[in-house]
Amino acid sequence: MAIKKIAVLTTGGDAPGMNAAIRAVVRYALSNKLEVMGVVRGWWGLINEELRLLDHRSVSGIISQGGTILKTGRCPEFKTEEAQQRAFDTVKKFNIDALVVIGGNGSFAAANSFCTKYKIPCVGIPASIDNDINGIDFTIGTDTAVNTALDAIDKIRDTSTSMERIFVVEVMGRDSGFIALMVALAGGCEDVIIPERKTDIVEICHDIVEGNLRGKLSWIIVVAEGAGKAVDICKEITEITGLETRPLVVGHIQRGGSPTAVSRDLALNLGKAAVDVLLKGETNKAVGFSCGKNITVDFDAAVQKKELKVDKMYNLIKILT
Ligand code: F6P
Q1: Which of 12, 170, 215, 240 is the most buried (most CB within 10 A)?
Q2: Residue 1 — very low, low, confident or very high, per pLDDT cuts 50/70/90?
Q3: Termini Cα distance of the chain
Q4: What pTM was computed for the model?
Q5: Which CATH architecture group holds 5-141+259-302?
Q6: How confident is the model at residue 214 (pLDDT cuts 50, 70, 90)?
């Protein structure tokens, strides 16, 4: 069946560059004579029939904006039969031939099961600050989030060095240590604690005390939120070393802000690639880049745990400290 009308939605945690992806999907689809509907609040919009027609001008001026003009949200209810049936009824009612889902790992898992069950052609555009889509190099928003976290670390470094203090900086990543590893390396941090690697706090304390004896009094330890809370780690370090340790939670500012050129360009390229996938009659795939080349990855593979080069990055961080 030829595709005439598509619907685009953003789901899960927002990521800087989602708007650029929406812009590319809308304008490229329109240039291919497709109609485009925007679904509001992710899966909720399909469940509750909240959609609007998107034209060329409806995506003007959003390329530099963080967040998503379509809004987004977590939707655990979408796992239920009843919610999926209502979403499917909306798809039928609005004569939608295919879906473009912009989101991360959880969004693609939901899209995979929903679209397979109801035989709806579907393509995924990977957008998540966690860089958690398997098989591709980067998700939209990762570069922006890493640079936001790095900016915080650079600023903490100034006060940490000047006042000779230890800081524990908590960055985002419930299941992934990607942001933590990237900023720990780029920020010249002394240590990093991530979910993918077992950490011995006593060993870190040993390094701190040894450093102290050599006259090194300022430390920045990065922790991914999935590996522990900055405030708890600070307490532990103080209890063991007797040294004052301060926590910083960078938090949700990592999800906002104007996307970097890297995040925008990725979003614009992948927006076009997603529409091409649907026009070719393919489905249940994520678009992405791998080693500089446009690729597609089946949803089944895309949602598998992405391997990080943990040892390589961790060793480099420690060697260069
Ligand atoms: O979008 C990914 C992410 O930012 C994770 O790094 C983080 O653990 C999670 O979302 C937080 O989600 P929420 O804002 O829904 O609490």
Answers
A1: 170
A2: confident
A3: 59
A4: 0.97
A5: 3-Layer(aba) Sandwich (3.40)
A6: very high
